[in-house]
Design goal:
- The model has no long low-confidence stretch (mean pLDDT 81).
- This protein has one domain.
- Helix 1 packs parallel to helix 3 and helix 2 runs antiparallel to helix 3.
- The chain is globular and about 50 Å long.
- Helices cover 73% and strands 0% of the residues.
- With 117 residues, the chain is mostly helical.
- It is built from 4 helices and no strands.
Length: 117
């Protein structure tokens, strides 16, 4: 072959890299949730998300991608960022979630009604 078609070993390497990124982003998200909420319930939730997310990536990659999108929604909301972060998460899920979790939290600049000044 002339190298145009991917070999089995390159697909395996790509799959392992994707799996590592997926697991790393789930762990980073879990740590983010634990720090953000700080309750025992949130710690349990974070561990559950990590375990269920790992299971789902083995069952179906599309469902695992849905977990990435949902995690990006949560992280974007908590960091006062746009929910549009979920769009690139559809295609580059683990990378986008890792990046989003590492970004600093923005100041709340909403012009809505607030009860406290």
């Amino acid at each position: 072959m002339n190298g145009a078609a991917p070999t089995d070993s390159s697909l395996i390497v790509f799959g392992l890299i994707y799996l590592f990124l997926y697991i790393a982003s789930l762990i980073a998200f879990g740590v983010f949730v634990m720090r953000e909420e700080g309750t025992v319930k949130s710690k349990t939730f974070a561990v559950l998300v990590i375990l269920v997310g790992m299971f789902l990536i083995f069952v179906n990659r599309v469902i695992g991608g849905g977990v990435m999108v949902a995690a990006c929604f949560y992280a974007a909301d908590r960091k006062n960022r746009s929910r549009m972060w979920a769009l690139p998460a559809l295609f580059f899920g683990p990378l986008v979630l890792l990046w989003l979790v590492c970004l600093p939290k923005l100041q709340d600049t909403s012009t809505g009604l607030h009860l406290n000044a």
